[in-house]
């Protein structure tokens, strides 16, 4: 049987001291990081230099400077320590089975997830949810996430995508705004302020085209994202074009109303995504079961929505797959 050669590695404590000193370009700062004396760091670096038979630092009056050999070593050792740190964090987090880290869009978080998160916590009080928001697609290699809400067509290499719901647009406004600005026909929208999300500039045009409107949406008030546009509608600023899933609670509470019953689908959908090469954790499986129930068709019905089938419109998602 052939023997397996042992790895030839330098002593790790001196290597750790060298990496810290090289990263900070200072023995003092390295000592502070490692919680040892400067003399101890210097001694460990000497041990490594003796082991390798080269000088790694030039000792200057006001500090230290890497030699050519030191720079070569630090280039490889620094990356190796970073890889070890990343792998340790990832494995450690995966081992803490009561933690669920999710990334979502701001509008999805504020409009749908956060109002219902208390229900999930009541059902699973031992699971610690860590919710972050970003308009960018999640990077599971670097972001320390279990899952992410993502919009688009569901085809992303390396990701499992569980479809939650299709995106459907409806106009909404406050009851007070509607009382002051009667909207009996679609054409009446030309007389009022239309609230737009700059992240989704085509939504109003898509809905107006779907219902056969003949005027362009020129009387506009622009917001950075859809969530702010919904807030504007609540504050009587005008009529927002909303994803109906994100305004269900306001429609039921009567703080928003839908002056026109017809919705239109954009061709985009929401998905819960996670890496294909990783088995979902127990908290993620519980979250998946919970979110499936809450996105069931019976919850998406609202008294303000007519039972008619929504119109279909074509949509061109952003490069990241979606906008908010």
From TrEMBL:
It holds the Pfam family HTH_1. Residues 299-324 are annotated as: Disordered. Residues 312-324 have a biased composition (Polar residues). GO terms for biological process: DNA-templated transcription. InterPro entries: LysR-type_TF_proteobact-type, LysR_HTH_N, LysR_subst-bd, WH-like_DNA-bd_sf, WH_DNA-bd_sf. Residues 10-67 form the HTH lysR-type domain. The keyword Calcium does not apply. It comes from the Bacteria. Gene3D superfamilies: Periplasmic binding protein-like II, Winged helix-like DNA-binding domain superfamily/Winged helix DNA-binding domain. SUPFAM superfamilies: Periplasmic binding protein-like II, Winged helix' DNA-binding domain. GO terms for molecular function: DNA-binding transcription factor activity; sequence-specific DNA binding. Keywords: DNA-binding, Transcription, Transcription regulation. Belongs to the LysR transcriptional regulatory family. This is LysR family transcriptional regulator. It comes from Celeribacter baekdonensis B30.
